[in-house]
Amino acid sequence: MPKIDLRYDLSHVFSVFLAVTASPPRDKEGRPLGATHVAKAALWERCAKLLRGSQISLFSQDAEGHFNWVFNSPAGLSPSTVLGRTDEEVLPLAAAEQLGAAKEAAIQEGEMQQVELCLPYGDDPRWYDVMLVPEEDEDGSQTAIIGAAIDITERKIQEEHLRIVMRELAHRSKNLLAVIQGIARQTAENASSTEQFVSRFNGRIFSLSRAHDVLTEADWRGARIFDLVRSQISLYAEPRLSQVDIIGINGFLRPNAAQYLGLALHELTTNAIKYGALGTDEGRVEVSFERVPEDAGRYRFTWCERNGPPVKEPKSRSFGVVMLCNVVPTTVGGEAELVFDGDGLCYELTLAKSQLIP
């Protein structure tokens, strides 16, 4: 009994290799009469088992364009609604015209054609990658069509998601570069030496990076204010976190507002370590976030230091003051007030409700 290896090509979708044992029929004397169709039938049954439940549909059409065979039909199209009908009778007009043009090209050129079709299915469309191969008649003319349609809807959804992500990434990158450029310019204007510029610039970039870490943990949907406060203080004064009281509403800031509030917290923290309440063991800092009682559309962020060294208002407006009183409030659509009280520095920032995610 001979054993042969067969390669069965399914409409250029994939190839199946099988070892098949064929037994031809024999006469009374035991002489073989010819090959049987047993091997081919067995092979198709194996292929059919593989295709059932997959995302691949197979079909064929006669010379007049009528479907005469459908296997594993696409979602929403049963064999009874397809067999004996043409593309125009089964598919939307636009899809039928697109498919008809590809079939005509396949017959004229004698080569496989590939086209992507979008078909309605419930509330969401389905996408298919359709491959068409011309089939020759006995006289060699190419009129009929055999084809395969692979459901690629999930791939299309992923591609669209990737495009959205790439657009968002480009937008964020431009915003980030603008922020860094502004930090570099303002830091340079207030630095007395290159060493001072490098030190201050690096600190602000680290602060921005820490804000991005908090945003990344929330998939860049936003950042919790309490998380921002803790991350910025722990960057320079982690042992002093026990001296910080955080009260009020743990609001969820939008990404842009989170970046700038992170920069404000950097200026407040480094100043408190050098000159304020976080520079002594007795100092306390109270950080709060609440709705503005007299204005439901606004929120108030407050940083107040107590029991620290006496503070005095600086004679000149440093970068930190500009950041706290001008840059940050402008960015978040609010106002800011910086008070150098004898008992400690107090900073109050109001921001629009639109800067928070409900």
UniProtKB/TrEMBL annotation:
Extract the CDD domains matched here: PAS (cd00130)
Task: Give yes or no: UniProt keyword Kinase.
Answer: yes
| Matches recorded under InterPro entries | HATPase_C_sf, PAS, PAS-assoc_C, PAS-like_dom_sf, PAS_4, Sig_transdc_His_kinase_HWE
A Pfam family of this chain: HWE_HK
What are the entry keywords? Answer: ATP-binding, Flavoprotein, FMN, Kinase, Nucleotide-binding, Phosphoprotein, Repeat, Transferase, Virulence
Q: Which PROSITE patterns match?
A: PAC
Q: Which reaction is the catalytic activity of this chain?
A: ATP + protein L-histidine = ADP + protein N-phospho-L-histidine
The GO molecular function terms of this record are:
ATP binding; protein histidine kinase activity
Show where the PAC domain sits. 108-164
Question: What superkingdom heads the lineage?
Answer: Bacteria
E.C. number(s) listed in UniProt: 2.7.13.3
Q: What is this protein called?
A: Blue-light-activated histidine kinase
Highest lineage ranks of the organism?
Bacteria, Pseudomonadati, Pseudomonadota, Alphaproteobacteria, Hyphomicrobiales
